[in-house]
């Protein structure tokens, strides 16, 4: 079976007619290797990425044209001395460098206090200690009979011990009770244990008598009894800082009397889209126009990653109104995410509006689809603004590579990146030299073990239907132009909420 790696920038595929079985991606069947346990702490983590070995015997880059990229003379080259690569005279910024800049700049929101139910899915930001003992009184661990262990020490099926039943206690009864030698009290699970009893005999191990009961087994003292503080004692830590708050933690918080708890809040992400060609979903697209899908898709992706996302929609086709819109959204946001098709070779209205607010540097990142990106901090509060390509498929790939890890960092998550598997490519893959390529695909578990992956389509940026059928991304490294059928590639399962 092939192994796994933790490169957050990898992907997947599927095809018909092959002797494979569909991988159940909801069953948690992906088993991480030690490298998947990379933890991140602090505001500016150092991000490292693994690579995967593939068949590199053929590097025929002339067979695979480089993707179209925007060029221009905006600002001094920000990539000098940063390990950038040069492809056909175009300076490209490595994916890791762009990611590191974003991760090093996103804010760490201050903890907030929420009602425990509203805290579900967030990380605890305080050390919660119990102000009470759990349980608060000695109680029965199941339905049965409270007795003294010494009285049933010789009990067997052949020679049961016979005891007198002196009463019955239900859960919630607060009246104290007690027993002495030779007596038993019928109790329900959670009921107060009568004084003198040190064992609860399960009802199934008795004849379930009402006035007298026969016990068919001996039990050690303390069996099926919950003592005061067995679960949590007064002063014990109930929930630690950094613990994800799920149903079990909410149960414990309620049990120790906490109605509210301090948590790392969901980062506020505003999604904007720029482009004269865009119309809203409810409008009829005319010649040359396209429906705005990015604001919906990116807002949904942000919510899936754990953010509180605001879909601000299409930006106005006016520089002054653009500036006002951006200024307003920066007041309410921890991060502003803008998708757009940026001008090739000169300024456009969006770039002019951004320049008025301080300016972003547009760079060409060594990835396909969508190499043109921008990042910077704008406004008096230095709000991070991330610009991703306007092609919907490229926009969602860029979100996976750059924005999702940033959201998880702001949430306080230790695992920033999706876990990945290495899979056998079911067919030949071609990739442009110098670009890390992300292909949508489907991954399957092979009956003989391991995973098989097949691409969906040919990597065209505009194929929304193909993307909707994918369950993974296939990632081909920058220095690989061809992966032979049967070669290993890294794939990133696209699990919802994963």
UniProtKB/TrEMBL annotation:
Swiss-Prot/TrEMBL keywords: Magnesium, Metal-binding, Molybdenum, Molybdenum cofactor biosynthesis, Transferase
E.C. numbers: 2.10.1.1
InterPro entries per UniProt: MoaB/Mog-like_dom_sf, MoaB/Mog_dom, MoeA-like, MoeA_C_domain_IV, MoeA_C_domain_IV_sf, MoeA_linker/N, MoeA_linker/N_sf
Annotated pathway: Cofactor biosynthesis; molybdopterin biosynthesis
Recorded catalytic activity of this chain's protein: adenylyl-molybdopterin + molybdate = Mo-molybdopterin + AMP + H(+)
Pfam families to which the protein is assigned, alphabetical: MoCF_biosynth, MoeA_C, MoeA_N
Required cofactor(s): Mg(2+)
Signal sequence interval, chain numbering: none
Domain MoaB/Mog: start-end pairs: 270-409
Keyword Protein biosynthesis attached: no
Domain of life per record: Bacteria
Annotated region described as Disordered, given as residue ranges: 1-81
Family membership: Belongs to the MoeA family.
Entry function: Catalyzes the insertion of molybdate into adenylated molybdopterin with the concomitant release of AMP.
Protein name (database record): Molybdopterin molybdenumtransferase
Gene name as annotated: moeA
